[in-house]
Backbone:
């Protein structure tokens, strides 16, 4: 199939009374489909022959929470995008409840294009601001994944001190947060400092790729340490089909992590 650029008319999927949210488009190639706000801003990519697999390194790195909690009961995700993390967790963690929060209705409207599951008893997508969601939610999540970007970068309300404090609050005891940040951005060190303040410096930074994506892991009453991560790198665990593609990334997390306070 030749390369296709698919523009999504606003009236086709969404209420045109919501102009404050950018309308994304789909870039389609022979065996992939990607979500963009501009041609040089890749938000998400899906392999059409393996729609539930993770294509981008930073999404694989965010799955490093499994090194600390292999069987989370409830995962919350801030940012849907093309649904890569949501689909992977839905397929490979069948006993886990998943709640996805996405502020942009135009992104949500593309969920069928990216084969994101319909809402059901253990999976749902909520249209809301992620900062409002963690402000109002109860402490019921074992894992919180924060990946809230739009055409202008990370939404500022998803990097405030209060936001990270609320992230800590909504996590259950032994809960884990993973945040996708950009190490080359001027606010990177500020955001890491705020995460450290909110999680008592119980954090680790893992570079996900050469483009600057860095995943910051933070734990609530669970040590985020190289030793703790390494003990979960075992052959039996990686014999599971869905983890084979993550083995190299998980080894990097366990051995090449950086503690900002070390």
Residues:
């Amino acid at each position: 199939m030749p390369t296709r650029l698919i523009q999504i008319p606003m009236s086709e999927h969404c209420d045109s009374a919501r102009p404050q949210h950018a309308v994304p488009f789909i870039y389609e190639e022979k065996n992939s489909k990607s979500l963009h706000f501009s041609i040089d801003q890749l938000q998400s990519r899906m392999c059409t022959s393996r729609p539930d697999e993770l294509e981008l390194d930073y999404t694989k790195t965010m799955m490093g929470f499994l090194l600390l909690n292999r069987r989370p009961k409830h995962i919350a995700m801030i940012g849907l995008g093309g649904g890569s993390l949501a689909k992977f967790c839905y397929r490979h963690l069948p006993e886990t409840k998943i709640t996805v929060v996405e502020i942009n209705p135009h992104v949500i409207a593309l969920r069928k294009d990216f084969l994101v599951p319909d809402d059901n008893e253990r999976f749902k997508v909520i249209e809301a601001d992620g900062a409002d969601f963690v402000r109002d939610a109860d402490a019921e999540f074992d894992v919180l994944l924060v990946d809230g970007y739009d055409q202008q970068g990370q939404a500022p309300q998803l990097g405030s001190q209060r936001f990270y404090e609320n992230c800590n609050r909504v996590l259950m005891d032994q809960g884990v947060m993973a945040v996708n940040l950009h190490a080359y951005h001027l606010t990177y060190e500020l955001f890491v400092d705020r995460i450290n303040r909110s999680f008592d410096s119980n954090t680790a930074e893992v570079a996900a790729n050469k483009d600057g994506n860095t995943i910051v892991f933070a734990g609530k009453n669970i040590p985020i340490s190289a030793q703790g991560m390494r003990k979960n790198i075992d052959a039996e665990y990686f014999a599971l089909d869905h983890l084979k593609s993550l083995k190299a990334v998980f080894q990097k997390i366990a051995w090449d992590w950086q503690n900002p306070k070390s």
In short: The chain has one domain: 51-256. The first strand starts at residue 4 and ends at 7. The two ends are 51 Å apart (CA to CA). Residues 7-19, 258-262 have pLDDT under 50 and may be disordered.
